[in-house]
Every structure is written in structure tokens, then in C-alpha cells.
Design a protein that fits this description.
CATH topology of the largest domain: Rossmann fold
CATH architecture of the largest domain: 3-Layer(aba) Sandwich
Low-confidence stretches: 314-319
Distance between the termini: 38 Å
Order of helices and strands: EEEHEEHEHHHEHEHEEHEHEEHEH
Structural class: alpha/beta
Mean pLDDT: 89
Number of domains: 2
Strand content: 25-35%
CATH superfamily of the largest domain: P-loop containing nucleotide triphosphate hydrolases
Shape: elongated
Number of strands: 14
Number of helices: 11
CATH class of the largest domain: Alpha Beta
Length: 319
């Protein structure tokens, strides 16, 4: 079953919130299918964290209807709390306790029997590769270990819906990728993830659907590929084995441009199936078969800048 046909884990209609005269959320609507990753992007101050705080019952909305895990947020907040977990921008780890003690503390907060709390702590330490560090004081953990423990603590209550508010901020690229793998494993197990992030690559790598929040409104929503097709600059790249084939293709296509003096043509395209098929059909009609074909679309940096007119969020340093 595709994510589009799954029941909604989160559904919001007309969500609005203001602080004084400042409108933070202006009647936004979205739906998050069960077992999927939904990423909310936006400039600093766009309202991403406010959205998470409302949906996780920490603050009240000014208006709108919201349901999470089948519970109405306004009338059944305790039901909502029973199915959600939250990992915020700032760690909830108590650095004076060991990793295991932090997990057992969460078990106490969830009113778990001692034996069950110890079992879940042991399971989570293993799942998050923290067994060797489990009985060490958390103040000695690296940033990546602390974030893994923080997420493990969120899972003690076995939530069906998890809010991750910029969960990899400050992590090095390797630690970030470890977190990505953990998040993917959670979703494969049926958990729904609502993700806010400053890293566009993170949203591109993880999210089934992405929404862009700007000046209180959702200005775009879709899969990463759908969003990339919203802005110009995409093209179909055609590679050829010799100059004669390239020249024939250039005449057949008309609007192709040679790339860097190579035996390669770039044909403007939105990257959609219909556009690519049109290029192939025109080549077939001329009896031309390229040696290679690939589709290039703008990345999420381009999309973000086009939709918000501001500076793109942080881009990961791959070094």
C-alpha cells in the first residue's frame, strides 16, 4: 500500500496560531499517512517548532481541527499524548545519569513495571548501539551518542507517532547518517515521523512528502521529486558516442544545448514522465538512439529559494 492510500496518522485543517499581532500559522492544512515521514521545511521563525508544539499538546492552537492517531487534539489531549513521542531541538538527556538510568527514568514516567522498564532499556541500548556506553554517565557521550540516547528515550513509551524537531542539528555528517538509518528503521516498523529540519538534504533523503512553510502558510507540498519540478532549470542529459549522432540529435530536438564541449546534449525539461517521453519519441522518429540518458532536476536548495525568496537552510558539508 502506497503512503497516499494509508489511513491518516496526523490530520490538520485550518490550523492557526498568533502571538499578539504576529500571525505564525495562517490556516494551514496537511495530512500525514501512517508509516511515513513528513518533513516540514521553512526559514527560521517560520513556525515549524510552533507546529510541533501544538500537535504534541505543549501549546494550544487558536483555531483549526487536528486529529492524531485517531484522537481529537482539542477534546482528547490525553489520548494524543498516549500515542506520540517528541525529540526536540535540545536534548532531554540528564547528563548526571547513565544512559541506562535515563531510559529507566522514562520508564518510570510512563508508569511501566520495573521488569518491563529494564527490558525496554536493554532493548533500546542494543538497538541504538549504546550497550558499551549504557552504564557510563551521559556527560561523557559524544554529540551523536547523546542524540541517539535522546531518541531512544522517546521510544520507551512505544509511540506510534514521533515528532523530530531538527534532530540532527550540530551532528557531523557521519552521525547524521546514522540517525537517518535509525529513522528509516522506525518507519519500516510502522512508526509515523513528523520531521522538521534545517538540512535540505535530510528532507530529500528521508521524507515521503515535504511541505514548505513560509510567512505562516504552506506554499508548496509534495514528494521531493514533485517539488523539484516546480522550479525551472531541469534538463534531460543525452550522451552520444560520436559527433555525427550528436549533431543529428541537436537538429531533431531543436532546443538542445551542447554541454562543455562533450558529446552531450542538455534538453530543457521539468523531469516529468511526459516531457522525457517526448524527447525519446522525437529521437526515435529521427532514428537516433543515445548512448545514455539521465534526468536532472533542481535540488531542494533551488526549490526553497524560489518558494521563500530567502536564504536556504544549512547545507550539509560532505567532508
Amino acid at each position: 500500500m502506497t503512503t497516499a492510500h494509508r489511513p491518516a496518522a496526523i490530520a490538520a485543517a485550518g490550523l492557526c496560531k498568533s502571538f499578539g499581532e504576529h500571525i505564525v500559522l495562517d490556516r494551514i492544512d496537511f495530512t500525514v499517512p501512517e508509516g511515513s515521514i513528513y518533513s516540514l521545511l521553512g526559514p527560521n521563525g517560520a513556525g515549524k517548532t510552533t507546529t510541533v508544539q501544538i500537535l504534541s499538546t505543549l501549546i494550544k492552537a487558536d483555531g483549526g481541527e487536528m486529529r492524531l492517531g485517531g484522537y481529537d487534539l482539542a477534546s482528547q489531549p490525553d489520548g494524543v499524548r498516549s500515542v506520540i513521542g517528541v525529540t526536540g531541538q535540545f536534548s532531554a538527556v540528564d547528563e548526571l545519569l547513565t544512559g541506562r538510568e535515563n531510559l529507566l527514568l522514562m520508564g518510570d514516567l510512563h508508569h511501566l513495571p520495573g521488569s518491563e522498564s529494564r527490558r525496554r532499556a536493554a532493548d533500546l541500548l542494543e538497538k541504538f548501539d549504546l550497550v558499551d556506553a549504557g552504564d557510563k554517565v551521559a556527560s561523557g557521550y559524544s554529540g551523536g551518542m547523546t542524540r541517539r540516547l535522546d531518541l531512544a528515550m522517546t521510544l520507551v513509551g512505544e509511540p506510534r507517532i514521533i515528532f523530530l524537531d531538527e534532530p540532527t542539528t550540530g551532528l557531523d555528517p557521519r552521525s547524521r547518517r546514522v540517525m537517518w538509518d535509525i529513522i528509516r528503521d522506525l518507519v519500516a516498523g510502522g512508526v509515523t515521523v513528523f520531521l522538521t529540519t534545517q538540512y535540505l538534504e535530510e528532507a530529500d533523503q528521508l521524507a515521503d512528502r515535504i511541505a514548505v512553510l513560509h510567512q505562516g502558510r504552506l506554499v508548496a507540498e509534495g514528494t521531493p521529486d514533485q517539488l523539484k519540478r516546480l522550479v525551472p532549470g531541469g534538463y534531460v542529459r543525452l550522451d552520444f558516442n560520436d559527433r555525427a549522432e550528436l549533431d543529428d540529435a541537436a537538429r531533431a530536438l531543436g532546443n538542445a544545448a551542447q554541454v562543455n564541449g562533450d558529446l552531450t546534449l542538455a534538453v530543457p525539461s521539468d523531469g516529468g514522465v511526459r516531457s522525457v517521453r517526448e524527447v525519446i519519441d522525437r529521437l526515435d522518429a529521427a532514428g537516433i538512439e543515445p548512448a545514455g540518458l539521465s534526468v536532472h532536476t533542481p535540488d531542494l536548495d533551488d526549490v526553497f529559494l524560489a518558494l521563500t525568496g530567502g536564504h536556504a537552510p544549512e547545507k550539509e558539508n560532505s567532508r
